[in-house]
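Annex B. Sample input.
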Amino acid sequence: MRILIAEDDFSIRSLLLQFLKHYGEVDAAVNGVQAVDVFVHALEEKKPYDIIFLDVMMPEMNGLEALGNIRNKEQSYGITPDDEVKIVMATALNSSKDVLDAYYMGGCNDYIIKPFNLEALAKLLERYGFSRHSK
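Annex B, continued. Sample output.
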């Protein structure tokens, strides 16, 4: 499984990298622009990501904008909604507007609130069919 984390906070990014490395190959981006670039590069190399964790509040391009760009890139590559990458928005914000924007306007698959509960994160991954392996 290929995983992309887009998170500008070093400690949160490190926590996710350490946790998710047991599920597959993990790459990281520090802002939305970099996340979209890395995503497109993976598509071009025919090594697409299976799941992306996008922070909502990032510099240069926020997570909601990156989400929209990623979904647009998928359409331009002819990727159908059934084959889209799973995208999980991550934020400290918990207002209903942020949740609605991410689901209905952006097309995310799930939404998690910081600070992360790693047990809940493991259950989310299981729900999408991703299993933990030993490294």
